Amino acid sequence: MSTDQIAPEHEQSQQARPRTPAPAAAPARSRIPSRLVGRAPAPAPGTVLHSVSGATAVMLGLVAIGAALHEPVLIPPLAASAAIVHSVPGLPLAQPRSVIGGHLLCAAVGYAGLAAFGSSPWVAAVAAGAALALMTLARTPHSPACATAVVIVLRTPDPRTFVPLLAGAAVLIVLAGCALSRARRTGGRYPQYWW
Question: Dihedral of CA 141/146/107/99: which sign?
Fold first, then answer.
């Protein structure tokens, strides 16, 4: 069959189909907001207030404990942990095993790196990577805990005070997540599993 025979048939089949009008081009301004919004799901109206108030309350509690003890208790990794537990409580990295175990494992990696190589940004970066590997192997994924290893290497806190405060703060974040989950009328319960 030659191409001469195919082309006319193709043209005839194209002519036989009814043509639908092309959609009018939307003005450029109306396309911009939809691109900014994206496809991310919108949170339920009460969820935002509930999660923000819960995370803020637990962080204020950590600040109050730190002020009473004259030790900094609220460190950036714990603020990130509170945000995760209160805003996405169903994720594996928000579960108690990951929050508490992740911070303690990463603290151990941070102190090991500090003892072996001293305090430097290079050691902090390697400690964060090693901490991520250990958490992955231990099935305790909690990304903010990598920053705990970095804080330890760069700030060299005394482990006799830092580790108990870190563990206590992680437990407090989890317990606050449990309490606020029980107070919420809708949604799933936190935690989904402890261990």
Answer: negative
Contacts of 47 (CB under 8 A, 6+ apart): 187
Enter the pTM of the model. Answer: 0.76
Angle between helices 96-117 and 76-87 (to 10 degrees): 160
Cis before 144 (ω within 30): no
- What separation in angstroms does the CA of 61 have from each of 54, 65, 107, 179? 11, 6, 22, 14
Residue 20 is classified by DSSP as P
Contact criterion met (CB below 8 Å) for 135 and 147: no
> How far is Cα 54 from Cα 84, in angstroms, rounded to an integer?
11
**134 exposure class (CB count in 10 Å sphere: 0-12, 13-18, 19+):** middle
What's the CA gap between 193 and 195, in Å, rounded?
6
> For all residues of the chain together, what is the average pLDDT?
83
Amino acid at 169: A
Q: Which helix (H) or strand (E) holds 37?
A: helix 28-37
Query: Are the beta carbons of 174 and 85 closer than 8 angstroms?
Result: yes
> pLDDT tens, 181-194?
887 766 678 888 88
Contact 74, 67 (CB under 8 A): no
Contact 75, 97 (CB under 8 A): no
